[in-house]
Amino acid sequence: MTRSFKKPKLSVQDADHFANDMLERKPAIENLSLLLSNISSPIVLSVNAPWGAGKTTFLQMLHSDLKNKQCKSVYFSAWETDFANDPLLAFLGEMNTALQGYIVGDKKKSKAWSTAKKAGTHILKRAVPVILKVGTAGLLDADKIIEDEASDFIESLSKDAIDEYAKSKIAIQSFKENIGRVLLDDEGEISNLYIFVDELDRCRPTYSIELLERIKHLLDIEGLVFILAMDKQQLAHSVRGVYGAEFDALGYLKRFIDIEYSLPQASLNNFIEGVYSSFGFDKIFARRAHQELQYDSEHLKNTICFLAEANNISLRGVEQLFSKVNLVLLSTKDNNYLYPALLAFLLVVKEYNPSIYNSYVRKGEGLKDMIDLLHSMVVDDLRYKSFISALIEGLLISAKAGELKDECAKCREYHQGVLNEDGSYTPRKEYSETVLNVMKAPGGGRGGVNLYPLVEKIEMLAQFEFSSEV
User: Fold this and answer.
1) Largest separation between any pair of C-alpha atoms in the chain
2) Rounded Cα distance, 406 and 281, in Å
3) Residues 92, 117 contacting (CB under 8 angstroms)
4) Which residue from 43, 82, 188, 441 could staple onto 203, CB 3.0 to 4.6 Å apart?
5) Other residues' Cβ atoms within 10 Å of the Cβ of residue 323
6) Closest C-alpha among 378, 387, 414, 395 to residue 340
7) What CA–CA distance (Å, rounded) separates 158 from 151?
8) Strands 193-198, 224-230: parallel, antiparallel or unpaired by DSSP?
9) Is 199 helix (H, G, I), strand (E, B) or coil?
10) What are phi and psi of 46, to 5 degrees?
11) Alpha helices (H) along 183-295
């Protein structure tokens, strides 16, 4: 039976929108949903978190929760629409689709929305450039206008600009008034419309900036509540790319945001369990349930959790790590040794410390730097209590036992010396005992880890491209 390479995309269904809440964010979503359902408008709220922290799923669940409370709510992916020249065009297009369910059968609201769209079409018109089209006469080049016609031309241009400004001002007023009519409830009161804007930080910088400006100035309408998902630091970087490295990008962004909400910390253990199950690892490890491999499953999950915490790996980064492990599993026979703790560690080191990884996988070198890197991930007091750290260290040493005999012997002597120290049995002694046990019998007692077949599979991954949408 074939297995999926990628983790299935998380589905958020309105009927049971917390069914796949792997990050235990239901309480936070319900609290924020209640706040939004009672908040005055217009207002712009940002949901801020780094890339890969689960903003999209959070927004989709919040969007569904509001809809289940009978609130009018629409979802808008900015990144999927940044092919448009003007964000307002994309916004009106998405709104046109989303509002149909709210205004269908209501002639007054349908008429108001039609009028708003017409006004929006006028607003979309660009300002007249210096080289402009006048009537049906085609393009006029200012350099070709003869001197005695210059004053007439400038007068005409000024009049056109003033007339265009007046028309735009009327159009904006009409746009806002008719949006307001669309938002009226049965009692004639303005009801909130919640507009979720996702992936803002992934758009091209100019599009993101224009969309923010449209939201704050043109769409500053009673009844509209915007919820923007963003990585504020990344978006600020994009703003500096447009306005210059010294520009106060964070201060600029604050102009558009009324309230900033920081995404709550996720439950990493639950997330890892969820991703592990979604890949179907339970079944494949069940097929590898030989006595010698019986702990591979737990070692994999615990090692990824250890590495994610130690290296501050994002949730999306964890998914990508599982995808890479999955690819190795797909190319490994069920009765072959996998050393999942070592595999996951090498994958992370290759990603974040490639020079140390490259040194270690070359024959005859790299062991000390690799162990030093492992030790740097966790302070000693915590490391001594970490079975996973001891397991990885033992595997690292054993994998080099055939080519670095003297260096590995020194490692063995060190840990044996710790174990032989006088005094009570301490976490430090327990750590050294685990390292020694792994060195003695890695992989069920075959006398050593065969590193290079594992490295070949890891290097094979370089031939694949891993999407950020995993």
Assistant:
1) 105
2) 38
3) yes
4) 82
5) 20
6) 395
7) 11
8) parallel
9) coil
10) -105, 140
11) 205-213, 232-243, 249-254, 268-278, 281-287
Q: Which helix (H) or strand (E) covers residue 132, if one does?
A: strand 132-133
Q: What backbone phi and psi angles, to 5 degrees, belong to 294?
A: -65, -20
Q: Where do the domains of the chain lie, and which CATH numbers do they carry?
A: 25-104+192-262 (3.40.50.300), 268-463 (no CATH)
Alpha helices, DSSP H only, in 69-204?
Answer: 87-98, 100-103, 107-123, 150-182
Distance CA(140)–CA(130), nearest Å, equals 9
User: What three-state secondary structure class fits 72?
Assistant: strand
Query: Where do we find the tokens 């005859």?
Result: 364
Measured distance CA(382)–CA(424) in Å, rounded: 18
Q: Is 61 exposed, middle or buried (0-12, 13-18, 19+ CB in 10 A)?
A: buried
Query: What does the pLDDT look like over 84-113, one tens digit per residue?
Result: 777 777 777 877 887 777 787 888 888 988
- pTM, rounded to two decimals: 0.68
Among 136, 132, 161, smallest CA distance to 145 is for 132
Are the CB atoms for 442 and 398 separated by under 8 Å?
yes
Comparing CA positions, the residue from 122, 95, 124 lying closest to residue 182 is: 95
Q: Which two tokens stand for residue 26?
A: 């239901």
Two tokens, residue 91: 């916004």
Instruction: Report the C-alpha gap between 72 and 193 in whole angstroms.
Output: 5
Query: Per-residue pLDDT tens for 364-405?
Result: 889 999 999 999 998 888 899 999 999 999 999 999 988 899
Q: The tokens of 205 are what?
A: 């910088």
Contact 348, 357 (CB under 8 A): no
Which phi and psi angles does 203 have, rounded to 5°?
-75, 165
